[in-house]
Amino acid sequence: MSKQLIITADDLGISPQTNEAVSRACDNGILTSASLLANGPAMDGAVACLRSRPQFGAGVHLCLTSMRAVLPATTLPLLVDEQGRFRHGFLGIWRLMKSRHQREAGHQINAEFQAQIEKVLAAGLAIDHLDSHQHVHMIPGVFSMVVGLAQRYGRLAVRLARETRRCATGPIHLCLVGQLRRALLNRLSRMNAGQLGSLRCADAVWGIAHSGQIGRPMLRTMIAATGEGVTEIIVHPAMTKPACSSSLGRADRLFLASAWRQEELEALLDAESARVAHGRGVELTTFREAFQAASTVDLSRA
Question: Could you state, in order of their start, the residue ranges of all structural domains in the chain?
């Protein structure tokens, strides 16, 4: 079995600086895939980025926790405020899915997710995977909706956010927040895995415990430790201190302003990272290539 590695940039479309970083990392680095925010303030630039790079993997980064919804506010009263801005975080959505409003909340979430996917497809893009902003699709009940949508739109790959082992080599320091995030998502992955059926997902995922803090040494370590099968590394490159849209939540604004965004970009552009992959026999790929192109959707050719 070969070693296949998908390196995915989340949050494409959240800012022009993120779009520029993703474009550079695709053209001159080892980035192979990106997840697009259909409700991102820089969505048009993200579409242009992907259209001009057909070899690049593209997915939908489903969102419930930041910016404005795609659907009108009047259709999503449990999810958004009067201006259409999402008003719950990860835990808020989880509580909603366990409340007496669970059924109606589920209908609204499914409708918004479908609208986000349709918006990306209407832009003429081919997509090969689904994941979500701040891993909200891993919430029980929400995950089953995403599986259903993945089946409906062409048996897309779905991210199962499980980081079940640490990198085999290199100094790794897991901060408390990272450890808690990793433990929670691993637990949710065990709960949700049985719902995938015949849908495909990566055999291993890295970039959860160290989300947004993957510099050159860390990226090289992850590449060197890539095992047989399909592995996904999640990254968040952007240019330093991007101008943030007022529609972004506080957590997104702080995340984008971090100097780590530039460090992650530089790690992806680092020639040594590519040499490590080549030397270890790691094939850089996309979900489309790894799981057969027949499972993708491309409305631009319809």
Answer: 3-301
User: Which architecture does CATH list for 3-301?
Assistant: Alpha-Beta Barrel (3.20)
Rounded Cα distance, 230 and 78, in Å: 37
Rounded to whole angstroms, the Cα distance separating 222 from 284 reads 13
pLDDT mean by block of 10 residues, the chain; 302 residues? 94 95 97 98 96 95 97 98 96 97 98 98 96 97 98 96 69 67 95 94 93 92 94 93 70 86 96 96 96 47 32
The single-letter code of the amino acid at 105 is: A
pTM above 0.90, yes or no: yes
pLDDT of residue 43: 96
What are the DSSP E strand ranges found in the chain?
3-12, 33-36, 57-62, 126-127, 129-132, 157-158, 204-206, 229-235, 282-284, 297-298
pLDDT at 296: 40
3-class DSSP assignment, residue 121: helix
DSSP letter at 68 equals: B
Q: Is residue 109 a contact partner of residue 267, using CB atoms and an 8 Å limit?
A: no
Rounded Cα distance between 283 and 290, Å, is 10
Residue 97 CA neighbour count, 13 Å, CB half:
23
- The DSSP symbol for 126 reads E
**Alpha carbon distance 226, 15 (integer Å):** 30
Output the pLDDT for position 169: 43
**What pLDDT is recorded for position 241?**
64
pLDDT of residue 293: 38
For the beta carbon of residue 95, count every other beta carbon within 10 angstroms.
14
* CA distance readout (Å), 257 to 18, 112, 187, 236: 11, 28, 30, 12
Q: How many CA atoms lie within 13 A of 41 on its CB side?
A: 18
